[in-house]
Amino acid sequence: MPNTKELQNRISSIRDTMKITNAMYMISSMKLRKTRTKLENTEPYFEGLKSEISNILLHLPDMEDRYFDTSEEDMDDDRERRRGFIIVVGDKGMAGAYNHNVIKEALGHISPEDRLFVVGEVGRHELRAEGYSVEPGFLFSANNPSMHRARVIAESVLELYKNKELDEVHFIYTHMLNSMNSEVRYERLLPLKTHTFLKEELIEKAMHEQGDKTREQIEREAEDWYMIYPSPKKVLENLVYNYITGYVYSVLVEGAASEENARMMAMQAATDNAREMLGELSVRYNRARQSAITQEITEVIAGAKALKKRKKQS
Known about the structure:
Helix content: 55-70%
Strand order of the largest sheet: 3-2-4-5
CATH class of the largest domain: Alpha Beta
Number of domains: 2
Shape: elongated
CATH architecture of the largest domain: 3-Layer(aba) Sandwich
Order of helices and strands: HEEHEHHEEEHHHH
Number of strands: 6
């Protein structure tokens, strides 16, 4: 059995560790609230952009745009297309399985020919270790996502897409479902899916507002009264740029929120384990201390008896 000094040292060490894990829990909790607030404050603006894009596509359905894919049949042969992946991982560890889950999902989709744009130092390190080439100039942190960072990332991938260096751009990131659960998502960013904006409820709403007219009649009449300046294509391109920036921003925020939430849960588990170990060590310490005291008392009594016996003999 360890002596009381060793047990005291272990108890002191665990108490110090528990202070650190508890402090990290509080910091992650504060960061999570701040991150979620940032996303909630910008969501109405980007929902408005999505609504405007829907209006243009609904009233001018024949307009073609390079950012939209109206047919899914070209997308079947993924391996032959020039693909880019924006993979959002963390910059640090101690976040449970957060980083591992994103890397595992990414490895299930990427190939050596793909271009990898990795947000987060852990992701860059892990994917290089797996033998993949990561874009060297794409060095963005996953911490404290900002609109400026989202805009720079959006501009980078849009430029490659416009120059036909990429045929598709995909996201792999973590979406926080609630305070207890999150899931890794794989989503296509470019080209945008037209049906994402032309949802059936929007079409039904427009038909309802126009009375008994058919969808074809509404579309024909729209060309006369739905005026867009300077041109539908210019306006749509500007809206798409801002929408994609918002999409990137929301993904960065979701990733940061999921990481902080995972770290909160990991630190809470570590604090609970430390508290349990302290309880066990305290019991062992008290037993060892009691045993030492009992041993000392026994030795004192034995010494007193021996001294008394010696006096009698003399």
